[in-house]
Amino acid sequence: MLRSFVAPRWAALLSVVAVLFCCSPASAEWAPGKYMSKAVARVLGSAKGLSDISDYGFDNDLCILATYLGNGKNAAFNKYLQKGEYLILGGGDDEIKDLDIVVSDADGDKVAEDTQDDASPLVRFNVKSAGKFTLKAIAAKADKGGFVCLVIMRKGGYTIPVKNLATALASLIKSCEVVDSKISEKLYFHEEPNQWALFGSVLDKGEETTITNINMGTGTRVVVAAGDGVSTDIDLFVKTSKDGVVAKDEDADPTPIVSFRANSFTGAKVTYKNVASRGKSLILTAVLHVQK
Fold first, then answer.
1. DSSP per residue over 206-256, as a string?
2. Strand pairing partners for 150?
3. pLDDT band at residue 244, thresholds of 50, 70 and 90?
4. Is pLDDT of 5 > 80?
5. Structure pTM?
6. Beta strand pairing call for 198-203 and 61-69
7. Is 1 exposed, middle or buried (0-12, 13-18, 19+ CB in 10 A)?
8. What is the pLDDT of residue 15?
9. Domain limits, CATH 2.60.120.380, in the chain
């Protein structure tokens, strides 16, 4: 029943995102943002629909991952999961014809998978003992490559209004477009092998998420964050593996942006913090690279 429900639910969210874009100051369409928005909106719409008809909701802290994958390529992420029942949804833009999800425990044993020949995978599993799990997305069929997204849900998780989902996504892409409009080079989402380019978390006031072990590669890198309108101040930090600060934005606003020059920069950390808000807020963060 859940699988049959997933696929068509993204359209409503994407339509709200489109309205928010149209109501914003005009800017040249940034092509990567168009395709990333479709992938993320497709999966968030399905997740929102499931939360409306079940007791599954968005996981606390990190609950959204997205990136670009070439045909046959994959990206994995290690996440600590609490004891309880989880559900992971996947999806992509129109270039993704077959997307698979595999979940493994700390010993490398497979816990759950969806390898059916479709672009809307769903895995449901029970975590009997809290610990670290590996979530892997595989673009099994994507001739030209495309953007993919995973949403992590759990029983008793957080319910996010559809407008908040749309606002966070539209705000993030708008921030990326601002960066794109100010540079002469081309701006892309981060594309290092086995790396994620977009992260999303549900954070209460004072809470933060730190993404570790990011391979920034070499070149100019930009990190942006944006929220759903609930948070009024978001801070953003890029650090080395030993917590040395590479770049930061602690201004009192909800759309921080940092840029820096990377030189074979591996083991990086990105922290985004909900400094001030009216309650729990969905915050999205993207890692971008500038290419001449």
1. T-EEEEEEE--EEEEEEEEEEE-SSEEEEEEEEE-TT--EEEEE--SSS--
2. 65, 90
3. very high
4. no
5. 0.92
6. antiparallel
7. exposed
8. 52
9. 2-155, 163-291
